[in-house]
Design a protein that fits this description.
The chain is mainly beta. The chain contains 1 helix and 12 strands, in the order ββββββββββββα. The longest helix is centred in the last third of the chain and has 10 residues.
Length: 134
């Protein structure tokens, strides 16, 4: 099954596996690790680690002391520390407050980024090791 998390034209990422969802009006607190893509339409507070993509929907709210993923797309509100092996994209409706370490950072017009960014070639090994340690 292939699912599009966010699409803008034909450049969306596709997942070859499952998508975990925190739906609107739902709140999750704690540590979450996964190998699936994760979509957040509700609220998440805690540590989040996945080898897949994390997508924060327009009404999604995330406060994370450590978020590690392959790619991260922020259309809602994300506050905290973000590490991505690939791309961190903040869409025109997104707000990211915190620290970003990624191979690529894309900030669309209208987006808000307040914090510090560090560009790294690739962090895939670090993400995989961190998940194995949980």
């Amino acid at each position: 099954m292939r699912i599009r998390l966010f699409s803008k034209g034909g450049s969306s990422r596709k997942s070859g596996g499952e998508v975990s969802l925190i739906g609107a009006e739902s709140v999750f607190e704690g540590a979450w690790r996964s190998e699936a893509d994760i979509r957040i339409e509700g609220e998440f507070k805690g540590v989040l680690q996945t080898t897949g993509e994390v997508a924060v929907g327009e009404k999604g709210k995330v406060r994370s002391t450590a978020l590690r993923a392959r790619d991260v797309v922020v259309a809602g509100h994300l506050e905290g520390q973000v590490q991505a092996a690939g791309i961190v994209r903040i869409t025109s409706t997104g707000r990211l407050l915190g620290t970003v370490q990624a191979a690529s950072l894309i900030i669309e017009q209208g987006a808000v980024f307040q914090g510090h960014s560090e560009m790294c070639e690739s962090m895939q090994e670090d993400v995989t090791i961190a998940i194995a340690m949980l």
